[in-house]
Amino acid sequence: MSISTTSPSSSLFPPLTLATLLTAVLAGFAADVTWEFWARVLTPFWVGGPLQPAALVQSVFGFQNWPLAEAIHAFVGIVAYPLGYLFVARPIARVVTPFLPWWVVGIGFGTGLWVFALYVMAHIFAGLPPFLGFGQLAWASLVGHVLFGIVAAGVVRWRGV
Length: 161
Fold this sequence. Notes:
Layout: H1 18-47, H2 53-61, H3 66-96, H4 102-125, H5 136-159
């Protein structure tokens, strides 16, 4: 397999350009808006209250500043996770499972984010039960993270990066 540097669709990694960063931020913003709508508007109908990732951020870092926790979660969703999709998840998928369509890679990415959030961060760092005991909050979180992954992957595809 040869890796071309001229076509984004055939390259393993996207070019390191301002357009790539803009794509990541647009993907993150759209995915984060989708996550927030799911977490704060729709999830309460299912579990009786919203998902509150800022509370997890507070538990992980041991502080009480709610706006700072919200800002950290927003930064991670808008900047860090989309860059992770572009430079980690999608390249791995292109090597390991190049036959999968973009939306399946997005679902896998979102599922990976859920594992990171509810096992690594919530369990290992914050000391909560793994995957919050697999209760309704955990499953609502999974749906939100999968939606995030699909939207982020869709925006990246739409932008042609």
